[in-house]
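Sample A.
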Amino acid sequence: MSAAVRVVVVDDQALVRGAFRLLVDSAPDLEVVGEGANGEEAVALVRELEPDVVLMDIRMPVMDGLEATSAIAGLGVRTRVLVLTTFDLDDYVFGALHAGASGFLLKDTPPAQLLDGIRVVSRGESLLAPSVTRQLIAEFVRRDPPAGMARWEATGSPTGPAGLTGLTGLTERETEVLVLVARGLSNQEIGQELFVTPATAKTHVSRLLMKLGARDRTQLVILAYESGLVEPHG
């Protein structure tokens, strides 16, 4: 039996944290190993515990979820950040994409979907809530593509002339896979679309991550949008 996915819950409201802890701990393959009331505590917990996933609220005192996500991404650990947000497409969420968040969920997401989302993000296999993430990214690119490209540089991700040159170095199949990743498809769905096995699809995605220097699939999606390979709302 594999080890349980280790989760840290971060929210400034004690009742919300308690509710998420009860929900996560109700799943036999998930375990809450820590709680934080603000972003500063989240970063400290990640340093100490190196959990698999941080369930991160955005708007908190002391340090908000955006700053915390960026700090966690800079620690060089394998911890993934799953952002909890409302569906108002606020600038905090746009920034969180570039700060290193691996996925997004709405706060009113059904419990079973939240638990599955934690599992998905912990594996790094596919985008969480792709319809939500695609809309967030499309809105971000529509609002501020030049600044978005600059923020890639700030996080050490492929961007600008170098990043776009990297896209020209992709094979035809890798480009096809990147488009499908940007549409929110999982490895299994990519395999079905291209008539290959999920394992082969996973290999293509891994090569894309390596070639483009992206941290995870979320960054691949942003790069696909910002490079113009995939059109917002298209």
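Sample B, a different protein:
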Amino acid sequence: MQSAGSVEEPSTAVPLLDDSSSTSKHEEDDHLDKKLSQKVWIESKKLWHVVGPAIFNRVATYSMLVITQAFAGHLGDLELAAMSVASNIVLGFNLGLLLGMASALETLCGQAYGAKQYHMLGVYLQRSWIVLFLCCILLLPLYIFATPILKLLGQPTDMAELSGFVSLCFIPLHFCFAIQFPLQRFLQSQLKTAVIAWVSVGALVVHVVVSWLFVYGFELGLVGAALTITFSWWIIAVALFCYTVFGGCPLTWAGFSMEAFSGLWEFVKLSASSGVMLWYLSLFLSRVVFVS
């Protein structure tokens, strides 16, 4: 027994560890990991909702060109070479510039849509049509004088003449770019990408059938092969135009407006700077095809 005046010594026993804090920490980490994975999954779905149909549209339209060259290859080596030069050098050279100029619409439409100025999307679309159509007119001599240009670049006479003839057949396709490219950017900015994908599927199926019909059924030869790619691309342009104008975009399309003719110079500068970037890429690809 201890006396009343004595001081009780503190206990030296070590308390048992409490696992509740470590368990809660692991649960919190697991919760954060699941939350992060869910966010990644949600953002990935949103991204592929935009990118997926756009990729499919590029693959479908490029496949049309490949199919056209394949039909031209069945006609002969000279026909295949002429189609390849006309599509990759003459057509590809202008396609890069027009595609880049239309890409400026992505920035403007995205800003207008985010600011809830929905009517401006239709105005920007019409401005892009005007600018790209004028650019198509300026680039038209490259198609008309393709034969002497190719001869100047050192191509054989027979292939240069046949490539120049194919380039003339591509003139309607050249103006199709001015309609189709802005429409695609206009719809993508509103997440209406499924429409672009389905239209591309239909055009690709039609292209295969029409290619066989024009080349073998009607026996139009190289002219038929060149006309099929023009016909199929115009199907995409007309379908997207009809969808936009006839009720597909009631919030952003308010009809044709004279406001589209205002501020064209600022729009030209923005489109030109965007177009030059892709034009350099087209120059590089054209050089690769030409050298090979």
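Observation for Sample B: The CA atoms of residues 9 and 87 lie 97 Å apart.
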